[in-house]
Automatic annotation (TrEMBL):
Reaction(s) catalysed by this chain's protein: DNA(n) + a 2'-deoxyribonucleoside 5'-triphosphate = DNA(n+1) + diphosphate
The enzyme's E.C. designation: 2.7.7.7
GO molecular function: DNA-directed DNA polymerase activity
Source species: Pelotalea chapellei
Pfam families: DNA_pol3_delta2, DNApol3-delta_C
Keyword Transferase: yes
Protein name: DNA polymerase III subunit delta'
Length: 326
């Protein structure tokens, strides 16, 4: 997709547009940023713009070259990643790449390679790649994607231009989800849960999330300090491994955030499908207790992140929640 369609990285795109216009792009870039934030899309947009003969500072999007890039079948773009059963990108893969880049491009002005994740080069493959970086055959464009540029050898880093990508804002994710045809309510919900990553948003299935909300609400309604088994059952059934528990806490936090909105008279909330339940809870709690609830959830989230025992942390949280809701 052309730069014009990239959402959420306006500053990065602006810099690329300027450098394309002035003919001053680098031959090697490191795109550093969290998974699912749009590094690969932006890399493809850069290649598309550099390959398009109609382009001034962005791809036209409609010429044969642009359509091939968009369809992922342009013969002059190489994708380099570890082979399916391997951890690292092998030295043999890098030699193949080097040989290939040395050949004349089929139709583009130059060849291009996207390497992901670039930090999966072991020392010998990294050293072999250094040669390619020093003298890219045929003026090839090399784009290295990584979540953390510090994982790359200093000698590689120093030969590339570093471009940093921030996590996507929830507004950007919501915009993209809606553009993909998702309804407003689901897009609002998923964009809040996605932690700045479209990949994460895609993994969170809307329907499964709604079901999970129902189960969660059911447990919250039964929590009682008089029947301690309700608390243990809730931790047992709602918790999971650390990652699943953090997800659960994020959902709870989104409930609490909505409740804070509702109790301060703002009707704009994320979890619209359970609005009556949230309104019911708000009518029983004052703002102070709602804020306390949010603080308890946040504190639990922090301790789970710090490696606390997940089950104990949830028991503790649900005891506090039961007390607050009583
Ligand atoms: Zn074009």
């Amino acid at each position: 997709m052309p730069f014009a369609d990239i959402i959420g990285h306006e500053r990065v795109v602006e810099i690329f547009r300027k450098s394309i216009k002035s003919g001053k792009t680098s031959h090697a870039y490191i795109f550093e940023g969290p998974a699912g934030c749009g590094r690969r899309k932006t890399a493809m947009a850069l290649i598309q713009a550099l390959f398009c003969r109609q382009a001034e500072d962005d791809a036209c999007g409609v010429c044969p070259s642009c359509r091939k890039v968009a369809g992922n079948n342009h013969g002059d773009i190489h994708f380099l990643e570890p082979l399916p059963d391997k951890r690292d990108i092998s030295i043999a893969q890098l030699r193949d790449l080097q040989r290939d880049l040395a050949l004349r491009p089929y139709e583009a002005p130059r060849k291009a390679c996207i390497m992901e994740p670039a930090d999966r080069m072991n020392l010998s493959s990294a050293n072999s790649f250094l040669k390619t970086l020093e003298e890219p055959p045929g003026n090839a464009l090399l784009i290295l994607l990584t979540e953390n540029a510090d994982m790359l050898l200093q000698t590689i880093r120093s030969r590339c231009q570093l471009v940093r990508f921030a996590p996507l804002s929830s507004e950007s994710i919501m915009l993209m989800l809606k553009r993909n045809g998702m309804d407003e309510a689901s897009a609002a919900l998923l964009s809040q849960m996605a932690n700045g990553s479209m990949q994460r948003a895609a993994e969170l299935d809307g329907e499964a999330l709604a079901q999970r909300h129902e189960v969660l609400i059911k447990h919250l309604a039964t929590l009682s300090l008089d029947r301690i088994s309700t608390i243990f059952t809730a931790s047992e059934e709602l918790g999971g491994n650390r990652e699943e528990t953090l997800e659960l806490l994020d959902i709870l936090l989104s409930f609490a955030r909505d409740m804070i909105h509702l109790s301060s008279g703002c009707s704009d909330i994320i979890n619209t499908t359970i609005r009556p339940t949230l309104e019911g809870l708000v009518s029983r709690l004052n703002l102070e207790r709602t804020l306390q609830l949010a603080e308890d959830i946040l504190e639990t989230r922090r301790s789970v992140q710090r490696n606390a025992n997940v089950k104990l942390a949830l028991d503790h949280l649900f005891i506090r929640v039961a007390g607050t809701l009583a």
